[in-house]
Amino acid sequence: MNADDRILLLDLENLGSARLRPRPLRSRLEVLLNAAGDIHHAVAAYALPDAAEADPLASVLAELRVAPLRVAPGTDAAELALLAHARRVHTEGGRIFLVGSADGRFAELAALGRVELFVWDGQPVAAKLADVVHDIHRLARTTGAPTDDATGPEQNHPGDKPLTPLARPADRHGIVVVRRLLIAVATGVGIALGQRLVDLVMPARRPQRR
Question: 186 is in which domain, residue-wise?
Fold first, then answer.
């Protein structure tokens, strides 16, 4: 590995990606990969219980050629796994680390080489991390996110159209009543206008003398 090889470390939980469905997850990871540009390799860490049979993230990561680092749930488990990988890369000569996270634990990477940060617009970055990184890249969110996504406000997926809420039964009843009332009023006005027109066109008959 060369000193100018760039390694992308993705903390999926901090990026809000671990809770996404496959389609928005893929879109969000594609944004990160495109922003990173030419890289030697990318790894993504996320926590999942050992007893869990299904791993919804593994197939998406495989499609994007991102190596999965699945860890057991625990305090800073994903961050520690990425830091351990970064140290192994450093022993092989790697000196440039691109980090997809805003967690302060990654400030430790400053001792290993150059650190660039990739976070979402509006996502708060730990002060001690912001103080040591060489560059911070703010990325626009283009995928849906859960309502409890700590990285920022929920966004709509580009292919998703906003849904128009259906009227409640009470609302439909009110609409029908108003519509019938308008029809009745229009009918009455039409009859009155028609009668007036007849009176103007046809003069009233005079009473015949006996």
Answer: 167-197
8 Å CB contact between 16 and 101: no
Regarding whether 134 and 177 lie in a shared domain, the answer is no
> Which residue carries 């609302």 as its tokens?
171
Cβ–Cβ < 8 Å for 99, 115: yes
The verdict on 93 and 190 lying in the same domain is no
Confidence of residue 186 (pLDDT cuts 50, 70, 90): low
Inside any domain, residue 150: no
DSSP per-residue letters across 124-148: ---HHHHTT-SEEEEE---S---TT
Can you say how many angstroms the Cα of residue 158 is from the centroid of all Cα atoms in its chain? Answer: 9
Kindly state the percentage of the chain with pLDDT values over 70. Answer: 66
How, if at all, do strands 67-71 and 96-100 pair?
Answer: unpaired
Q: How far apart are CA 66 and CA 12, in angstroms?
A: 12
Is 0.70 topped by the overall pTM?
A: no
Q: How far is CA 198 from each of CA 184, 192, 195, 202, 206, rounded to the nearest angstrom? A: 21, 10, 5, 6, 16
pLDDT digits (tens, 9 = 90+) for 38-96: 999 999 999 888 766 678 888 999 999 999 999 998 999 999 999 999 999 999 999 99
Any domain includes 148: no
pLDDT computed for residue 54 by the predictor: 76
The answer to whether 69 and 82 have CB atoms below 8 angstroms apart is yes
Please state the domain count of the chain: 2
